[in-house]
Amino acid sequence: MLFRSLFKSLLFGVPIGVTFLDSVGYVARVEGISMQPVLNPESQNKDYVFLSRWSVSDYQVNRGDIISLVSPKNPNQMIIKRVVALEGDVVSTLGYKNKYVRVPEGYCWVEGDHTGHTLDSNTFGPVSLGLISAKALYIVWPPDRWQSLEAKLPENRKPISLAV
Amino acid sequence: MSFRPYLGKASAVIGYVLQTACITHCIIEYVGDFVLCTGPSMEPTLETNNILFTEHITPRLQRLRRGDIITAKCPTDPKQNICKRITGLPGDKVKGYFPRGSQVVPRGHVWLEGDNSDNSKDSRMYGPVPQGLIRGRVVCRVWPLNKMSLLTEH
Predict the structure, then answer these.
(1) Most buried of A125, B14, B79, B128 (most Cβ within 10 A)?
(2) Which structural domain, as residue segments, surrounds residue B143?
(3) CATH number of the domain to which A118 belongs
(4) Which N-terminal stretch is annotated as signal sequence (chain A) (predicted)?
């Protein structure tokens, strides 16, 4: 009897929950230091961010957005980085095989804020927009870190030329 | 005039529609779906306007093999989908990506080519494709009915 009602509730709740997480958004813990100081400024306490799937449903990202994407090196891993350049922009790279890269159509250039401690486009090159999973909008935990994440670009990482 | 019974019935209907939509979403995302393929790049294996059944389980479990036909998001346009054959897994040596003569498929990527070599825009143009873009593996063709067949031979 109990099993049946439990089973029924699961059958009812799971598809709705999964669809909500896939379409609207979810909360995730940030690992690593690649986005310091914005995320995880003290390596002891990890930030939890709200990742919005709704914002990227049509792949409209802006320069400066913090996004989560499927790692090009490992499809089982999600990484969180900032979008520095969009298609058509020219970036000056930090340690990439070419000094200047023009971001191709359908791609973007992502970087971690913590230069030198980040695996990003400077390692694996421009990232296809199709790999973008969600946009990080807010830090939701711990409560003293509640804040809205702004889309801003560090001055020294602005693209040297923007697409028209 | 009382609206109560109508409100009850209306919310029940809305509930059913929502539930069905969510179950459909979960099936399409995680189990499999039917796909309409257009274009000549996979001839003669697939012809334009064929409807295929693709499953989404093996890509998620990383159990794709060389020779599988897969659907993926187009690397140069995330709103479009492509349907190609995997001809190279990570570590394989492939040839023909401009400007280099031959290269090794990097970790986490696959090399895609259409069966119709002369008329296919594939990895030979846009390079290795990250596995994160792969959506499903083609299992069989379901339309046209007289051409229904399993497409799993390599």
Answers:
(1) B128
(2) 35-150
(3) 2.10.109.10
(4) 1-21
Contact of A10 with chain B, judged by CB distance below 8 Å, is answered with no
Measured between beta carbons, which residues in chain B are less than 8 angstroms from residue A18?
A: 22, 25-26, 29
Of the residues A5, A8, A9, A34, only one is catalytic, namely A34
Sign for the CA dihedral angle at A57, A59, A63, A65 comes to positive
ipTM of the complex: 0.89
d(CA A67, CA A154): 16
Instruction: List C-alpha distances in Å: B153 to A79, B28, B51, B67.
Output: 36, 24, 18, 8
**Chain A closest CA to B130's CA: distance in Å?**
5
